[in-house]
Write a structure and sequence with these properties.
Blueprint lengths: L1 E5 L2 H9 L4 E3 L4 H13 L3 E7 H5 L3 H9 L7 E4 L2 E5 L11
Length: 97
């Protein structure tokens, strides 16, 4: 399972320096919607990290789809202004964050 980070270059830089390779820097909200939809359909992505303020800008339907993709046993973590979505396919993540 891969970790994907979506956001501005400033937001994603720390994750990139930490070794995350699936980095998406959309130029506008439309591109961000497209990227998030693609990640929802990608079975290799187990964790999606997005700034909570960016997520709030997304259409309700997309936010609901992201929320529904979360396994009941996997939490949504909000750290400062960062939202981490653990997708239902990420059942092999046993260590706490």
């Amino acid at each position: 399972m891969e970790i994907a980070v979506v956001g501005t270059q400033t937001f994603t830089l720390g994750f990139q320096l930490a070794g995350v390779t699936r980095i998406l820097n959309p130029n506008n909200e439309e591109e961000m919607q497209k990227d998030l939809r693609q990640l929802l359909n990608d079975k290799e992505v187990g964790i999606v990290v997005i700034d909570a303020s960016d997520l709030q800008k997304m259409p309700d339907r997309l936010r609901i789809q992201l929320s529904d993709s979360i396994s009941p046993t996997s939490p949504v973590l909000e750290l400062a202004s960062t939202l981490i979505i653990l997708r239902s396919g990420a059942r092999n993540l046993n260590s706490p964050i």
